[in-house]
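hey can u check if this looks right to u? its 155 residues, i copy pasted from the old doc so theres a chance i mangled smth
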Amino acid sequence: MPWHTRRGVDLWRTIQCAEGEAGLTEQNSLSGVKVMVIDDSNTIRRSAEIFLLQAGCTVILAEDGFDALSKITDHQPDLVFVDIMMPRLDGYQTCALIKKNARFHTMPVVMLSSKDGLFDRARGRMVGSDQYLTKPFTKESLLKAVANHVARGVA
C-alpha cells in the first residue's frame, strides 16, 4: 500500500474513533469503490483524495485528460470526477472520449467546475456527463455524488 494511502487509512481510523458508529456506516458503504479525480490543481486533487480515502474509496489521481485516459484503461475506475478547465485536453473533451469508448461508455463522469452557469452544465450533458459538481466542493457533496452512483448499481 502506498504511503499516502496508508496515511489516509490511519487518518480515517482516527476520525472513526472520534465519530463513532455513524462514520463506520459511511466508510463501509463506499469501501472499495474506485474513484478517479482528474484536475490540474494539486490542491483540488489532494482534497478530493483525502475525502475519498476517509470514506474507504480507492483513489486514482490524474493531472489532465491525457494522463487520465491511460490510467482509466489500467485501473478501470467505477466513477470519474473531471475538471472542466485543464490544459491540453479539457474536461469536456476527456468526458466525450470516455463516453465514446465502447468499453467505458457506462462509466459515470462527474464534471467539476468553478463555473456554475447553465451553458456549462448543458455542455457537460451534451458530452455525456452524468452529474455536475461546483467547486469548491464539500466533503459531503463529493461523497454524496459517489454514493448516488454506487446506489444506482454502477460501481
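Helices lie at 3-19, 21-30, 42-54, 65-75, 91-100, 118-126, 139-151.
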